[in-house]
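Consider the following assembly input.
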Amino acid sequence: MTFPSPTSALPPVGGVVPASKTDLDVMRCLVCDIRNRSLCNSMDEEGLAALAHSSRQLILPPSTTIIEEGEPALAFFNVTRGTVKLFKSLPDGRRQITGFADAGQFLGLSTAQTYSFGAETVDNVRLCRFMRPQLETLLSDYPTFERSLLAAVTDKLAEAQEQMLLLGRKTAREKVATFLLDRMKAFHLTANRRQEAETLASVPMTRVDIADYLGLTIETVSRTISAFRRDHLIASAENHRIRILSVATLANIASGQKAE
Amino acid sequence: MTFPSPTSALPPVGGVVPASKTDLDVMRCLVCDIRNRSLCNSMDEEGLAALAHSSRQLILPPSTTIIEEGEPALAFFNVTRGTVKLFKSLPDGRRQITGFADAGQFLGLSTAQTYSFGAETVDNVRLCRFMRPQLETLLSDYPTFERSLLAAVTDKLAEAQEQMLLLGRKTAREKVATFLLDRMKAFHLTANRRQEAETLASVPMTRVDIADYLGLTIETVSRTISAFRRDHLIASAENHRIRILSVATLANIASGQKAE
DNA sequence: CCGAGAACTTGATCTACATCAAGGCTGCAT
DNA sequence: ATGCAGCCTTGATGTAGATCAAGTTCTCGG
């Protein structure tokens, strides 16, 4: 699905927040609760005002297209709520999800004229959209922001290398164990309440998405999760949550130890 | 070698070039023949002098460790000649090569205290080494250089995503076809002589390396290359070279078309 | 020019995961 | 509450690529 676009094609204004440039709007970045876990952390008060001025907030329902593969690369996004999936496809429909961007993560960076990947919301998502010229101005005006983006992209590259190791060399069991632990860590960072959420993993995506992320089929993902449940390594929790019962064992499996 | 080497013969293989800060040393970056295909391209004449001053040239034989997984991340490198492999390993020895850095490519960027990956020369390699503090100074002093690095890392991330698609969703046949075409493109960029090198691919790495890069075994790589040769899509050439006989067919295979 | 180890190829067999198939949940629209 | 559509699970079977096992061909030191 592409997101509802009342008038013109480009600013896909499914849910742009009413754009009166009020105090509230200028303050948006200042009061942003996940700021300290994102790029924007590198900004001082003046910079935050510039950020708010340079961006618009989008509120999007699940399964909304944010970026279409091959479209002109016009914007850059920062996720402030929910989870976005990034992917690449082959002509016959095979798809690889290259990553999930949770709150605090950016997406949409490209040096090419067009995006080489697609992006779609997994659940209810809020993001800040920066059009490319504005982003470039910000980078030039705020060196610490640029340094921060460089660091963030460098981290993404390291993540990508880790995922290549998973895709190329891990077994199905190891892949799923790695995924569940990663989702637990992601939940840690996102969740506000500490305690008792310590061993919860947030899994808002479907089996299809998990399979396309791990280079498996949905059946294999399902069977592997069932096996972990049978072995009491995990248990179901409410909603799209999974409780990790044995982090240590799962970590052993994830890292390729033969241990049980 | 292509550019005139003014006075002293090139330093002996296996070590750091004698570090007399002579004109020659200051000029190193100015006369670098692959400069225009690397990060350094963004530098003006003054910047190039600073680059030369901030770096040392290393000349290394094949199978030399450049970066050890888990070691402190002290340096950043720019490859000026030859090919370097980057990889990650599992405790039991399984290995994933995450990329090959040919002349003009950088490696060694990390925001963490330690490297999360290893790097080793494939053939005879020359590289420029920047210690981290010097690199950071350069980034701060030369904004165009920093912007250029940001663009380069962004490109690497796009490459990594492409490789994830390959690892997660392509067949052995598609993987090998993609690899051969990529090596052809890499040779294009690296080779000085044009013409008749148009369809040559440089493959300095072993079957083990290719297998670890594509998430296959050496036997499967060997069989697949043999099949391509049998089908007259490729032919052996001198050294570690492969001639691509049908770029179009190989490209079809690489992109997942069912075409023959 | 020779010999030995490393790198590569090819064949036979095995297996982890894919594919095919059938139900069973779950949530929401009526 | 009921039905249905999307999502998930589980089982039976198939297969691409792994593993096991010989050779064969490079490569390079002496």
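Residues 171-172, 216-217, 219-220, 223 of chain A lie near DNA strand C (CB under 10 Å from a C1'). Ask yourself how this observation constrains the way the partners meet.
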